[in-house]
Design brief:
With 238 residues, this protein is α/β, with parallel strands linked by helices. It has a domain of 164 residues: P-loop containing nucleotide triphosphate hydrolases (Rossmann fold), CATH 3.40.50.300. It contains nine helices and ten strands. It has a six-stranded mixed β-sheet with strand order 6-7-8-3-9-10, with helices on both faces. It has a four-stranded antiparallel β-sheet with strand order 2-1-4-5, with helices on one face. A hairpin with a 2-residue loop joins strand 1 and strand 2. The longest helix has 18 residues. It binds adenosine-5'-triphosphate. This is Branched-chain amino acid transport system ATP-binding protein. One of its GO terms (molecular function) is ATP binding.
C-alpha cells in the first residue's frame, strides 16, 4: 500500500529568509503524529507548507504517491487534506451550522458523490455543536470554537487532518473532549492526524509518533510508546 503522504527534503522561506530545511517524513492512513518544538522553530510554517498556503522553496510533497508540491491550497483540501489553523479562523458572523457548511466546499471534488449536508458524524463527535447550531460563532467560548473549527474541517471528509495548536487557551475538560473526538476520528474513520503542539502531555498521550523541530529542521523523531516525554521536554519547553 502506498503511503498517504511523503515529504522529501522540503524547504520553505518567507522572502529570502529560509525557515524550513530538509524536512522529510512519511504518513500512513490513520497515523497520529505530533510536531513539537519551541516558539518560532517553524512548526506553523511546516503545516502551512503541507497545506500549500506557503509554496515549498525546495523538495517534494507526495500524496498517495503523486507529487502535489505545486498544488494550490483549495485543491489540496479537495483531495482530502483538512486544516484547523491556529486561532481557529471561524467566521464570527455566521452561525455554527453555516460555518460547518463552509467545510463542505472541500467536497467539490471531481466526480465526488458525497452528501451535500454536514455529515451526522460531526455532530456525533461534538454533540455540543447540535445544541448551539443556530448560534453565531463569534459568541462561542474558545473550546466551542475549537470544536467548531475541527468539525468544519471534518465536514470536508479529509483523509489527513492538520491541527495547529488545538489545545491553546482551552480549558482542560474541553481538551479531554477534543482528544477523545480526535481518537475516534482516527480509529473509526481511519483519518491520519498531524498535530502541532506546545502541550507535551496532550501530544504524548494522543500521538503514536513525534517529530521535534529546532531552527527549521527535524532534530529528533520516534515513537511515544518507546520514549518518555522527558527525553524531549528540554527541546520543547523554553
Ligand atoms: N509571514 C511571515 N513572514 C516572515 N517571517 C515569518 C512569517 N511567519 C513566520 N515567520 C518566521 O518564521 C519562523 C518560524 O515561524 P513559525 O510560526 O513557523 O514557528 P512556530 O514553531 O510555529 O512558532 P509558534 O509556536 O510561535 O507558532 C519565525 O522566525 C517567524 O518569525
Amino acid at each position: 500500500m502506498t503511503d498517504l503522504m511523503n515529504l522529501r527534503s522540503v524547504s520553505a522561506a518567507y522572502g529570502k529568509g529560509q525557515v524550513l530545511w530538509d524536512v522529510a517524513f512519511d504518513l500512513k492512513a490513520g497515523d497520529a503524529i505530533t510536531v513539537l518544538g519551541r516558539n518560532g522553530v517553524g512548526k506553523t510554517t511546516l503545516i502551512r507548507t503541507i497545506m500549500g498556503q506557503l509554496a515549498a522553496s525546495g523538495g517534494h510533497i507526495y500524496w498517495h504517491g503523486d507529487e502535489i508540491t505545486e498544488m494550490r491550497p483549495h485543491q489540496r483540501s479537495r483531495i482530502g487534506i483538512g486544516f484547523v489553523p491556529q486561532g481557529r479562523h471561524i467566521f464570527p458572523h455566521l452561525t455554527v451550522r453555516e460555518n460547518l457548511e463552509v467545510g463542505l466546499s472541500a467536497l467539490a471534488r471531481k466526480g465526488f458523490e458525497g452528501p451535500r449536508a454536514v455529515p451526522e458524524m460531526v455532530f456525533d463527535l461534538f454533540p455540543k455543536l447540535t445544541q448551539i447550531a443556530g448560534r453565531k460563532a463569534g459568541v462561542l467560548s474558545g473550546g466551542e470554537q475549537q470544536q467548531l473549527a475541527i468539525g468544519r474541517a471534518l465536514a470536508g471528509q479529509p483523509q489527513l487532518l492538520l491541527l495547529d495548536e488545538p489545545t491553546e487557551g482551552i480549558q482542560p475538560n474541553i481538551v479531554q473532549q477534543i482528544e477523545d473526538a480526535l481518537r475516534r476520528v482516527r480509529t473509526e474513520l481511519n483519518v491520519a492526524i498531524l498535530i502541532v503542539e506546545q502541550n507535551l502531555d496532550f501530544a504524548w498521550s494522543f500521538a503514536d509518533r513525534y517529530l521535534v523541530m529546532q531552527r527549521g529542521r527535524i532534530v529528533k523523531e520516534g515513537r511515544t510508546a518507546q520514549d518518555s516525554a522527558d527525553t524531549v521536554a528540554h527541546l520543547v519547553h523554553v
